[in-house]
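User: My advisor, Dr. K., asked me to get a structural model of this assembly before our group meeting. I'm new to this, so sorry if the format is off. These are the inputs:
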Amino acid sequence: MNYSKKEIEIIKELLFKIADDQLIIGHRNSEWTGLGPIIEEDIAFSSIAQDKIGHAQAIYNILHELGEADADTLGFLRNANEFRNCHFVEYPIGEYDFSLMRNFLYNNAELIRFEMLSGSSFEPIAKLAKKIKGEIKYHVMHADTWIKQLGKATEESHDRMQKTLNGSFNLALGIFEPGEYEEALRTTKVFNGERVLFDSWLSSIEKILEDSTLKLPDRSTWNQVYGGRRGAHSDYLQPLLDEMAEVFRIDPTTEW
Amino acid sequence: METKAKIKKTEILKALEDVKDPEIPTISVVDLGIITDVEISDKGKIKVTMTPTFAGCPALKVMEDLVKNKLFEIGLSEVEVNTTFDKPWNTNKISSKGREMLKKHGLTPPPLHNGFVEINMLIHITCPHCGSNDTLIKSPFGPTLCRSLHYCNNCRQAFEQFKPVS
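Assistant: The format is fine. Below is the predicted structure of the whole assembly, which you can bring to the meeting.
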């Protein structure tokens, strides 16, 4: 690898936001373990959590190769303002409709993001993306299936899904908060940028929502929740990190 | 030298057939397709490269240790085991013997795919107990990351599939 110091900084910024998104939504998904409305959903959310935390770990390992601390340190010993995940993933799990809708909106973006990254000029992430997009496909299948089922099942389920879509859409737009180096990532062919990702995501979810008889909120109401990619978070992130790292922080040097 | 090194590589792979996946104890790491490289240096140092089935597979660290211990057991001393995504795994990499071993464990082997896995590959798969295709998918997620849950309408048994991954 022959990258300048500046190029490495640019790649790191991209990797941190992706890994942090995966770790935090993975943790949130794991909060359904033991609480799922039916056992299959309990297992599904737990498996998806395990996959996503595995993805975060693999990306932190790449960051480690680029000179950052090891995966455990990056995952467990940073504070909220050092995390680059979007606000959407840090929100509490809420009712099951919110968690499902979040997975639907997030997983569809995540799948396209990793499809884009599988062609990245930065080989370590391209190789990893080629592998894990096959896993994410199952996360998308799961969410799409439920959105279609619940969108069309009963009046109550339809209304709840529509209400939660309306309530979470601006948070979902925060996934695509542009980073400082969008242009440089594009010209070096590392990543084609949030704008391209957003356009492709919108057409993917529109198709599923149409099949589900759910309506995208009117464009005039769109008001994206930004800040996460700069380290400015909602009040929900720090307590989540404190809980997630509680045991690790007792003795960070212990062999697990 | 070249021929001698080659013989050794097959011997190593042969030995590694004894190392089983702790989550599916009928299949070896070799038949599972997760051993991607075996290098033998002139001085006899062994470097084994593995790749995970799923990035978050909790059995991976255990399997790395099992591989190492097996090679110590057959008398090798300088052994290094690494995990990379250089040659990423997919379910087509499971050997035909491996597919038989999955059946022995009561799991339907994954259908072969051409790089794309669609949800319709998961429905109406063959029941490993009675061979019927009158089956239903209950969930694409099962007791381990690599399995999905199914039900057979013919023999009325629940069963699992090693699910296809591209």
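One thing worth pointing out at the meeting: The longest helix of chain A spans residues 123-152.

User: Perfect, thanks a lot.
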